[in-house]
Amino acid sequence: xxxxxxxxxxxxxxxxxxxxxxxxxxxxxxxxxxxxxxxxxxxxxxxxxxxxxxxxxxxxxxxxxxxxxxxxxxxxxxxxxxxxxxxxxxxxxxxxxxxxxxxxxxxxxxxxxxxxxxxxxxxxxxxxxxxxxxxxxxxxxxxxxxxxxxxxxxxxxxxxxxxxxxxxxxxxxxxxxxxxxxxxxxxxxxxxxxxxxxxxxxxxxxxxxxxxxxxxxxxxxxxxxxxxxxxxxxxxxxxxxxxxxxxxxxxxxxxxxxxxxxxxxxxxxxxxxxxxxxxxxxxxxxxxxxxxxxxxxxxxxxxxxx
Length: 306
Hints:
The chain is of the alpha/beta class. 34% of the residues lie in helices and 14% in strands. The N and C termini lie close together (12 Å).
């Protein structure tokens, strides 16, 4: 028998789940909900931060990152983790750096890069997962992939399409009975907390985006941290799960270096009162009107008979 509350999260690469959704997954698992994590690629083209691993080929890095995310899942407690289409079906597309810390689409990428994948094929892999797990709430990135990474954008498109197809009785009945996801959320930065953490980081002399970082006006830098706070519809408190979040993130040793200025800044943000994992409403049932963001991703949904 399925638990009353069921949550699906779709992320692009190993480590994305630990930097953006660890507290959310830990909380709902602790409360007895079903949590399903889908990872779209093995992250074969991620930046390697450990000097002795610099010789890894993309395939070797992908295999290593499978181990890293397995360790993270043990720490968080996730037992239902799926690679979209199976491990290695879709290859990390890579990215290029653009102005102001955004990512862009590279000119060349592997033939089976996720960005180049057939959208219907990728969505159908997810349709089968949606119909078998029956989540009421699904989470992924915003239409811009939060910061422009092509795999994040493709993960967004894949989930948004899959949710429509999964609810359509005439579409691929061989993939299971139709299921309607009630609410789609887009994970985002908790804008106010990130801006507050940035001010502290500047006071401590941390340079996050190059030598000219401190020359930017505070208000200009604040705009890059996330959406208008009025658009944030839900925040899952981070503090009760801070130790889990940090331990899970640090399992991704190839990608995360605790003493790097950015990760020091990230740690500052996590410690701030009121810090949490923030969400925008992508589609589906709105949250009940209240004072500020909701604290429960399922608030206002009828999950008893779902």
